[in-house]
Design a protein that fits this description.
The complex is a heterodimer. Chain A is α/β, with parallel strands linked by helices. In chain A, 43% of the residues lie in helices and 20% in strands. Chain B is α+β, with helices and mostly antiparallel strands. Classes of the chains: A alpha/beta, B alpha+beta.
Chain lengths: 227, 490
């Protein structure tokens, strides 16, 4: 069964061209021109990856992202017009895993999708031992994080980030390293991906996200998991 | 947001400041006023005191003169009586502290005092001989203690062959006046100091709104458009505050409109580009299914699509900068690794990277994406016009870092060294003319803008090792250590 990509884009020609190019890359593509139809389609046929253009008529990309995120931990890629706007941070905070700026090369998109699916799978099938840190119990094999024996619902990217940090508790990981290992980015990846995901992760694993006990900032260097 | 620093204003002398000038004006003004008042007071006091002294002196003289007349009219004509007359007179005469009587009888001075009659001014004696009434005069006499001012009254009584004088010393009066003068001078100085203090205070008070406005303007220049002035209770200042706030509103509107426009244009340009990019990629994948001619066309298309994309990106970047809508995404990173990667990703990965061992671990706080665009634009520029960059080096210089890109071309003539950083200017070609190169002439102007946004500068010179070639230098402040959490406040 092929990998299904749901692409949400209101511009008819862009949608057709992107669909064409993605099909050429070998993906199955589902199309939606509005957020409303996208949510209907997603309910019927859950896709493996969702591509959302932020500028949509009706309910906007952020809202679509939040709605999908409430129901699923499917990888979401946002498409924005510019990299240096609040849109990126807002999109990531709405639950997106990664973003691309228009115009992007469909080849680049394919590479991002592959990186995401790889991390989803590796998180599912990796062979790490169970790691116990304070109240947290991370089981990489099962893709589970327990806090006081209750399961936490992390997205795949959040989970992968936590596992990466937990692979060497106490060691500081720079953003560059995390971007490469979790997102598959080279040196010029956007550090905000790490920052926002760390923030999201903290709201789930920390008792008080404002003064974190587990995912700790190391000034000017990066992040670490406090053993 | 980028702003020209207020500190770059020309330095002024301290006295050119409004505060200093108002203070000085108040001080000078009150000194002049106090001097005038003091002089007037002194003149009035002097006259008044002298008049009083004169009046009491004249009264005393008249009563004493009457006593003298009485004594000599009643004097028996004996030698004995004549000899004892001054003695008895001496007891009857009314003598204030500072007065001395002089009595001349039959051409002889009696022993009433130690001031000899001949010391008295001739003019007085002449006047007395001519006029049969009391004559008064102010004279200065030289004594052993120095000069001394005297008020002298004299009168001849020809029927008795007596001339009677009284000499009043003005020393007390002089002393009083001199004390008064000192007090007045002191008071003038005190009041001019008080004036200066008052002026300083008043100017500070008056300038307080100016400094509030200046602070608000600084805030706004730094991009904080929420800043408004409180409306002053003073109606004059309220008008100023109101206009200032209106100006900020208008400015904010304008910037937001510009930003919206840029964003709209950006969206409108990106949409067709997106379709083109995706479609060309499909064509590229299916290249082998196409006839030769179509393949050539696809090659041309995809090359120029890239160029077009770059042009749109650069133009949008510049218009965002013009709109002041750019925010740097600062992070802290090592220069050595950064430059190595930028060189590796460039079209000429063989460029040599040089730095001293001391600077091996040098880090900088900058916008990584923008700085990489700066360096890669310089590399591209060198490839186009300078025969390719040969070496990139960096070094720390105080609080700044200099990154240098050198090529082995013909160098840049001195007259063009400013112009090449302008928009749409290209090596050897005047702006406005078309050229067949692939550049669009925005590369170096973007370099200049990016560097300026970082608070740095960029310039070009000849190579310093004497070889032919251009040497582009980017100088950036090292920047503060950045906290991750601050960085997250995006």
């Amino acid at each position: 069964m092929g990998i299904k990509i749901l692409t949400i884009e209101d511009d008819e020609r862009i949608r057709q061209a992107v669909t064409l190019a993605l099909k050429e890359e070998g993906w199955e593509v589902l199309e939606a021109s509005t957020g409303e139809t996208a949510l209907e389609i997603f309910q019927e046929t859950p896709a493996d990856v969702v591509l959302i253009d932020i500028m949509l008529p009706g309910i906007d990309g952020f809202e679509v992202c939040r709605s999908i995120r409430r129901a699923s931990d499917v990888p979401i890629i946002m498409v924005t017009a510019r990299a240096d706007t609040h849109d990126v941070v807002a999109g990531l905070e709405a639950g997106a895993d990664d973003y691309l700026t228009k115009p992007f090369a469909p080849k680049e998109l394919s590479a991002r999708i592959r990186a995401m699916l790889r991390r989803s799978r590796s998180a599912d099938t990796g062979n790490m031992e169970r790691i116990q840190v304070g109240e947290l119990e991370i089981s990489a094999d099962e893709g589970l994080v327990l806090k006081n024996n209750e399961e936490l619902h992390l997205t795949k990217t959040e989970f992968k980030l936590l596992v990466e940090l937990a692979s060497q508790p106490g060691k500081v990981f720079s953003r560059e390293v995390l971007l490469e290992r979790v997102w598959g980015y080279d040196y010029f990846g956007d550090g905000r991906l790490v920052d926002v995901h760390v923030r999201r992760l903290r709201t789930k694993v920390e008792n008080d996200p404002a003064s974190p006990r587990y995912v700790v900032t190391s000034r000017g260097l990066g992040y670490k998991l406090q053993p | 947001m980028y702003t020209r620093k207020a500190s770059s204003l020309r330095r002024h002398k301290w006295w050119q400041g409004l505060l200093a000038r108002v203070t000085i004006a108040y001080a000078v003004g009150s000194l002049v006023l106090a001097t005038m008042v003091a002089s007037f007071t002194f003149a009035v006091a002097q006259n008044r005191l002298f008049d009083d002294l004169k009046q009491s002196s004249i009264d005393q003289f008249n009563s004493n003169a009457a006593e003298v007349r009485k004594t000599y009219e009643d004097l028996p004509d004996t030698e004995n009586a004549e000899a004892s007359a001054p003695q008895s007179l001496n007891q009857k005469l009314n003598r204030s502290d500072a007065s001395t009587p002089i009595l001349v009888r039959r051409g002889e001075q009696t022993g009433l005092s130690n001031i000899p009659e001949k010391d008295l001014p001739d003019s007085l004696r002449l006047a007395i001989e001519e006029q049969k009434r009391p004559i008064e005069i102010v004279a200065t006499a030289e004594t052993e203690q120095g000069s001394e001012k005297r008020y002298i009254i004299g009168m001849e009584m020809p029927d008795l062959d007596v001339t009677y004088y009284e000499v009043f010393l003005l020393a007390d009066l002089e002393k009083t006046l001199s004390n008064l003068r000192n007090i007045l001078i002191g008071a003038a100085f005190v009041s001019s100091f008080a004036g200066a203090a008052l002026g300083y205070y008043a100017a500070r008070r008056a300038l307080a709104p100016v400094s509030r406005i200046s602070n608000a303007a600084k805030e706004i220049a730094a991009g904080n458009f929420q800043t408004r002035l409180d409306l002053e209770t003073d109606p004059d200042l309220a008008v100023l505050s109101l206009s200032f706030n209106e100006m900020v509103d208008a400015l904010k509107d304008k910037i937001e409109r510009d930003e919206r426009f840029t964003s709209d244009v950006s969206h409108e340009l990106r949409s067709p580009l997106m379709t083109l990019t995706a479609s060309i990629e499909v064509l590229e994948r299916r290249r082998n299914d196409l006839p030769d001619v179509a393949q050539q066309a696809v090659t041309l298309l995809s090359q120029d699509l890239l160029r077009f994309q770059k042009l749109v990106e650069d133009l949008l970047e510049i218009s965002r900068m013009d709109a002041g809508a750019v925010q740097l995404q600062l992070s802290q990173f090592g220069l050595s690794e950064f430059l190595t990667i930028v060189i590796r990703n460039s079209a000429t990965p063989e460029i040599e990277l040089r730095h001293s061992t001391r600077d091996r671990d040098l880090t900088i706080s900058a916008d990584k994406r923008r700085l990489s665009q700066v360096i890669s634009n310089l590399i591209t520029n060198a490839a186009k016009y300078g025969g390719g960059a040969k070496a990139i080096s960096y070094r720390k210089l105080g609080d700044a870092v200099q990154i240098t890109v050198e090529d082995e071309g013909e160098g840049i003539p001195v007259k063009d060294r400013q112009r090449i950083f302008e928009r749409f200017s290209r090596g050897g070609i005047e702006a406005g003319k078309r050229a067949s190169g692939t550049g669009v002439g925005l590369g170096l102007s973007l370099v200049a803008e990016h560097v300026r946004l970082h608070g740095g500068k960029v310039w070009v010179s000849d190579r310093i090792d004497g070889k032919s070639g251009a040497r582009f230098v980017v100088e950036l402040p090292v920047g503060d250590q950045i906290d991750n959490d601050e960085e997250m406040a995006i």
